[in-house]
Amino acid sequence: MADLDDIKDGKDWGHDRPADTTRFFLKGAAHHDWGMKARLARIFRPDTGRTVMLAFDHGYFQGPTTGLERLDLTIAPLAPHADVLMCTRGGLRSSIPPESGKPVVLRCSAGNSILTELSNELVAVDIDDAIRLGAVAMAAQVYIGAEYEHKSIANVVKLIDSGTRYGIPTMAVTGVGKDMVRDARYFGLATRIAAEIGAQFVKSYYVDEGFEKITLGCPVPIVIAGGKKLPEAEALEIAYRAIDQGAAGVDMGRNVFQSSDPVAMLKALAAVVHDGRTGAEAYQLFRDEHRKAAA
Ligand code: 5RP
Q: Looking at the keywords, is Transcription present (predicted)?
């Protein structure tokens, strides 16, 4: 029989300490459930609200592009220096040690190649496998204005619906078809559509004119892709301007793994994203790190 003699009345009710009613640190995420928020908090650092993601999913349509010939040799050693890894399940299982302990945003679409129509994708990972891999988010492209716009939106909607069932966020990637104009109007449209269909965060590109309108018009966090390889100083300046105009981080690939010093580049990006350093300051840090590593 349960011992009822020793039950004492509670004493410490914290009268002077009201319950925390501030809801969540991340834009647009205050009303999500606990698991969804917990995963978002593994992607975006709660102390800064931002993230440095390393994208190396390119092989799913580009094959072994420069810097990704051997994921085990070039990417696995970078894992400690990024906040999050973004990759395919094949790249992850074959080449990244689970002991790396890094949160993974899983590329969950496929179905095209550089030889065919880019927008013609399908959902290529079952939710069960995303859960099995411990993914903190799933990702797929929306190709707004492209031939297979409708299908690409349906893919992302499917991920959002299955992810919401299990508390897994979806990152919609604003894929740009070959004939699309890369301007603020286009990305404003694409990012807003992605957020309105329910993506918990969105990946887009930085544009020189009007980027702030894109971040303001998108009710969830935006992370930027890096695009084609640029000189390090330029890539860091773009990251700085994007953050300064409201981006919540970067999800960069080629500008990291094709850099002369990918580790120094990740450290420099972290300085911009988390420490508020300018592009020029971060480039100096890149050079210092590079010199140290070469010594
Ligand atoms: C491709 C992607 C890539 O992950 C993305 O383009 C990031 O890489 P990069 O910085 O090299 O542009 O989503 O569809």
A: no
Helices marked H in 79-210 — which ranges? 89-95, 127-132, 149-166, 184-196
Domains observed in the chain: 34-259 (3.20.20.70)
Task: Decide if pLDDT at 1 tops 70.
Answer: no
**Burial class of residue 192, CB neighbours in 10 A (0-12, 13-18, 19+):** middle
Query: Would the CB of 225 count as within 6 Å of ligand 1?
Result: yes
**Residue 221 near residue 248, CB atoms below 8 Å:** yes
CB of 105 shorter than 6 A to ligand 1: no
Whether the CB-CB separation of 121 and 148 falls below 8 Å is answered with yes
Neighbours of 27 (CB within 10 A): 18
Q: Phi and psi at residue 291, in whole multiples of 5°?
A: -65, -45
The H-or-E segment that residue 55 falls in is strand 51-55
**166-193 pLDDT tens trace:** 999 999 999 987 777 889 999 999 999 9
CA distance 266 to 251: 11
What residue type is assigned to position 267 of the chain?
Answer: K
**Phi, psi of 216, rounded to the nearest 5 degrees:** -70, -35
CB-ligand 1 contact for 140 (6 Å cutoff):
no
Position 44 confidence tier, pLDDT thresholds 50, 70, 90: very high
Q: Is 203 a catalytic residue?
A: yes
Q: Which of 203, 213, 228, 267 is catalytic?
A: 203
pLDDT, the chain, mean: 95
